[in-house]
Design goal:
This protein is α/β, with parallel strands linked by helices. It has helices at residues 47-54, 77-80, 100-110, 115-128, 144-156, 174-191, 202-206, 225-231, 239-249, 261-268; strands at residues 6-13, 24-31, 36-40, 62-67, 70-71, 84-87, 162-166, 194-198, 210-215, 218-223. 37% of the residues lie in helices and 20% in strands. The strands form two sheets. It has a six-stranded mixed β-sheet with strand order 6-7-8-3-9-10, sandwiched between helices. The longest helix is centred in the C-terminal third of the chain and has 18 residues, at 174-191. The structure holds adenosine-5'-diphosphate (ADP) and magnesium ion.
């Protein structure tokens, strides 16, 4: 059997060595090939710190991260870096190229890849995010969602097995968000890429296979979205669940469990 794409064991980290307080404490979870994990939690709960540890930008005080069975450490991190990509909130800060295709090619150029192979990789990456017709565009003139997709293509060109998005949809309008969600769903389904999306948007979290909730640097919940929404009253849950709770509070006999919007519509129209 193949090792899990990502295995996090007893991860503990603190920014300040002199303090006892850990920013992350004993965090353990695994993510499989083609799985989509949403990471949620209030501000300061340690989500971005976790993302930085997963890509080797920070080094844990205790515990370990394995990517495709290889332990992330000082020696392996340069090699593993192409296997796990991180996308941030603001797409503007991530551009280097003057055309979309140059931008996507940037990391490959740095690796001294042969031109022919580079050309194929860039075309494939743009196709994977649905931007094959935008290769010659100036990236600064694209919509927010398209910019994030260019940034994703830049990572995809490196053939990663894991993509991490740290609140990557915050600056996007609803239409761009929807496009980006579709792109992620296609990458998961068609290319079996593992996706870890850090988010405050419970509609985004709902699209994931699983939700991991952090609280003060520890895992509070790890389960399917429906399960976590039901267990955790402090989450700003999707509309259908808000409605279900409201109806329940007013004494209506609603189903116990969490429902998706479609299920809620079917139940209301029954
Ligand atoms: N570079 C840093 N140096 C010191 N403390 C930090 C640094 N970055 C984050 N922190 C602290 O670590 C905690 C977790 O932060 P972070 O991982 O950014 O949380 P989140 O992404 O969930 O909002 C917070 O208390 C934050 O103030
Ligand atoms: Mg953060």
């Amino acid at each position: 059997m193949l090792p899990p794409r990502l295995q996090v064991e007893q991860l503990t980290f603190r920014y300040d060595e002199r303090k006892q307080e850990n920013t992350l404490e004993n965090v353990s979870f695994t993510v499989q090939k083609g799985e989509w994990l949403a990471v949620v939690g209030h501000n300061g709960s340690g989500k971005s710190t976790l993302a930085r540890l997963l890509v080797g930008l920070l080094t844990p005080n205790e515990g370990s991260v394995h990517i495709n069975g290889i332990k992330l450490d000082e020696d392996s991190k340069w090699k593993l870096r192409s296997q796990i990509g991180l996308i941030f909130q603001n797409p503007e800060n991530q551009f280097i190229g003057t055309t979309v295709k140059d931008d996507v090619a940037f990391a490959l150029e740095n690796m001294n890849m042969a031109y022919d192979e580079m050309k194929v990789r860039v075309e494939q990456a743009l196709e994977m995010v649905g931007l094959e017709d935008f290769a010659e565009y100036d990236p600064s003139r694209l919509s927010g969602g398209q910019k994030q997709r260019v940034a994703i293509a830049g990572l995809l060109a490196l053939n990663p097995s894991i993509l991490i998005l740290d609140e990557a949809m915050v600056m996007l309008d609803p239409k761009s968000r929807k496009e980006l969600m579709e792109t992620l769903s296609n990458l998961k389904t068609n290319n079996h890429i593992t996706i870890i999306s850090i988010t405050h948007d419970m509609n985004e979290a709902q699209a994931a296979d699983r939700i991991l909730m952090l609280s003060s640097g520890q895992i509070l919940h790890d389960g399917e979205p429906a399960e976590v929404f039901q267990k955790e009253p402090t989450l700003d849950v999707p509309f259908a669940e808000q409605l279900r709770r409201e109806l329940e509070n007013r004494g209506s006999k609603v189903p116990d469990g969490y429902m998706t919007e479609d299920e809620m519509v079917r139940w209301l129209c029954r």
